[in-house]
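Hi there,

I know you've been waiting on this one. I reran it after we fixed the sequence typo, so this is the corrected version. Both the input and the resulting structure follow.
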Amino acid sequence: MYGHFPLFHNHFYPPPKYISDFSNISAQLQIYRRFSKYIGATPNISAIFEIYRLTDKNRHNIHT
């Protein structure tokens, strides 16, 4: 809508911190992993899942 943030189709300005409704990246990645066979995900995306999962786990350990 504003032209600055093409990923955000909802009228938020400034844009939300997260692209989707999931503030927990692990939950979002689980959904992508579950549906990856339907959206044609590549092995590179699977590697990214692992990196984010480990990063998210480390982030939670720091805050607990």
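Quick highlight: The CA atoms of residues 26 and 57 lie 9 Å apart.

Best,
R. S.
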